[in-house]
Amino acid sequence: MSSGTYNPTHVQAVEYGPGSISKLSGLVKQVYATVYPGSSDSPKVLVLTGNSLKTKTPVIGKIEEQLKQEGLYGATFSSIGQHAPIAGIREAVKLVKDQKINVIVGVGGGSPIDAGKAIAHFSAEELGGPVMPQVAVPTTLSAAECTQNAGFSSEKGDKTGVAGPLLVPRALIYDAELTKYTPERLWLSTGIRALDHAVECQYRPQAQVPVKQIALFAINTLFTQLLASKADPDNLEARTALQIAAFQSLWPNALRTPLGPSHGLGHKLGATYSIPHGICSCLTLAACVRVLAHTLQPADKACLANIVQFLPAEFQPTQSASFYSPLSGRTSSEELTTKATQVADAIDSLLAKLGLTVRLSGFKVPEQDRAKMAEAVGTAVKDFEGMPTSDQFTRMLDTIA
């Protein structure tokens, strides 16, 4: 095994389990004291969310009530749309200035949590001073709370963003009770997004061995517990296990390299055609794995192939090695390709069982756009070893048309 270095992010605390939202006020005070040591002011929170959570569930009202009881509440902004359009972010930055907000509580999926990072970034640019901290309360499995990247949509609808080590949320709350209000298709598809993180971690440039190994256990949990959650949506143990697996899938990591082509294609599809993050992964992950099984360099292909041994029994190919048995360094390239292809087959099978098999045609992606999209993704991953060519990406997109 080669040597390496793992550097964590600025995450200070992770609370998990039903009822853990009760820890919110304490976490707000904790992250505030870290970023503003010795300040004579008090935390003043902006609750950042989407319209559905605000108007159709009791989640935001309960959070506001808790913060008000502790004298921490400042304002709520609920106009963060899918893929976090820049217009909403600018509006929220103005609110931060007007209300003298100094802590963000992002509640919901990837869009409000990423928007929180962007708002913190732009507020610091305009106002000076430190980057305000965020406490993230995810209600999906997209794992945006784990990264220092803030993705949002430009005025033209293109995916863009900002990044920096101080943008990562300082504290996370995984309360399964709050996820019961998340629509089933959104909940399950963002679980596939988490699976996308964990799989692409296996061939991510410079990904550290400990992080890759944590992601393998996330893959096993996601396969088993997504099915359990679909079978019984009230199963809070399954929901909590999925939240922890989402955290493991994108383990807090200061590494700045891109994840891989499935993510690159998802960013283009999502921003251009308004396809939700999780559904993008349902479209691209298995197809990308199937192509990468043939093109990756041997070391990366071995990491991808090793996923087979972490699949639950019902997804195991007949001739698979025993669970957790490491692949031999003498495994042939042909055998690695076979095993990596079996990973793609397992992902397709999981999608079918979850009712998440989707095609590009269902989102009116024009045939003439595929080559342009493939070229853009090919450029984005050009520094990766063993990536498909633009032509191969185009043919891959044809298979999911």
Task: Record keyword descriptors for this entry.
401 residues, alpha/beta, Rossmann fold, Dehydroquinate synthase-like, alpha domain, 2 domains, six-stranded parallel beta sheet, two-stranded antiparallel sheet, 8 strands, 51% helix, globular, alcohol dehydrogenase (NAD+) activity, ADH_Fe_CS, ADH_Fe_C
Structural class: alpha/beta
Summed up, the domain count is 2
Unreliable residue stretches? none
* Shape category: globular
Q: What is the string of SSEs from the N terminus onward?
A: EHEHHEHEHEEEEHHHHHHHHHH
Strand order in the sheet with the most strands? 1-8-5-4-2-3
Which architecture of the largest domain would the CATH scheme give at its second level? Up-down Bundle
| Assembly level | single chain
CATH names the topology of the largest domain as: Dehydroquinate synthase-like, alpha domain
**How much strand?**
5-15%
Number of strands: 8
Cα Rg: 21 Å
CATH superfamily of the largest domain: Dehydroquinate synthase-like - alpha domain
On the 0 to 100 scale, the average pLDDT is 93
Strand count, sense and barrel status of the largest sheet are:
6 strands, parallel
Domain Alcohol dehydrogenase iron-type/glycerol dehydrogenase GldA: 16-175
Keywords: Oxidoreductase
Pfam families: ADH_Fe_C, Fe-ADH
Domain Fe-containing alcohol dehydrogenase-like C-terminal: 189-377
